[in-house]
Specification:
CATH class of one domain: Alpha Beta
CATH topology of one domain: Rossmann fold
Number of helices: 10
Order of helices and strands: HHEHEHHHEHEHEEHEH
Radius of gyration: 20 Å
Distance between the termini: 46 Å
Shape: globular
Largest sheet: 5 strands, parallel
Number of strands: 7
């Protein structure tokens, strides 16, 4: 039945989309497999670079928050367990998160490898991830460390203003609106996200330095960390990433 319904679903896909996907897969087949981890504090530019890397190397993007929500929505056995923990206000255990990542890695879209973003956050999580990958006979190829000074992040994040209905973003210093506090297109007022404040950033950075910096050391001992100059303009960071991944 599943095969029949898949065939019917494919019949309804426009030919141009099928051809595009086939061509994409053919192009992807010649790309080297890559298993990457992106590490960096909030505002370091991981979100800007990951879609570019994903498309360049035909990888799947595994963002743990999204995957947890998807597993809960799909009511997978691991998703049900995760929901129980969330409903009690508990943190989802490392084993559960690694299990959900393990499941996701088996999807066809992850055939050429993956980008892990937001995980591992602790050394224990990194060790558990290594164990899972070892069972599959693979390992992490590169850890991209988006290295950036806290003071630059503060300037980047606290200067960010958003137009809520369109998602357009501005920056008081780097990309200011024509009129301060007002959207260029609609003239509606801009807002700052609740998270984009000095106090929230400071607590997130403290957590990052305390928990996640040891993860960088853990992978550095394996010789797979590439330190990026994340304070540079996005295009320059992209070319740094491309150099690192082509070597």
């Amino acid at each position: 039945m599943a095969a029949n319904s898949a065939a019917l679903a494919l019949e309804d896909v426009p030919s141009v989309d099928l051809m595009t996907e086939l061509l994409r897969r053919m192009k992807c087949s010649s790309k080297p497999d890559k298993r990457l981890i992106l590490i960096g504090p909030p505002g370091s530019g991981k979100g800007t670079q990951s879609p570019i890397i994903k498309d360049d190397y035909c990888l799947c993007h595994l963002a743990t928050g999204d995957m947890l929500r998807a597993a809960v929505a799909a009511k997978t056995p691991l998703g049900v367990k995760a929901k129980e923990a969330m409903d009690k206000g508990e943190l989802v255990s490392d084993d559960l998160v690694v299990g959900i990542i393990d499941e996701a890695m088996k999807k066809p879209s992850c055939q050429k490898g993956f980008i892990l973003d937001g995980f591992p956050r602790t050394v224990v999580q990194a060790q558990k991830l290594d164990e899972v990958l070892e069972k599959q006979g693979v390992r992490v190829d590169k850890v991209l460390n988006f290295a950036i000074d806290d003071a630059i992040l503060e300037e980047r994040i606290t200067g960010r203003w958003i137009h809520p209905s369109s998602g357009r973003s501005y920056h008081t210093k780097f990309a200011p609106p024509k009129t301060p506090g007002v959207d260029d297109v609609t003239g509606e007022p801009l807002i700052q996200r609740k998270d984009d404040t000095v106090a929230v950033l400071k607590s997130r950075l403290e957590a990052f330095h305390r928990q996640t910096e040891p993860v960088i050391d853990y992978y550095a001992k394996k010789g797979i960390v590439a330190n990026l100059h994340a304070e540079k303009a996005p295009k320059e960071v992209t070319s740094e990433v491309q150099k690192v991944l082509s070597s």
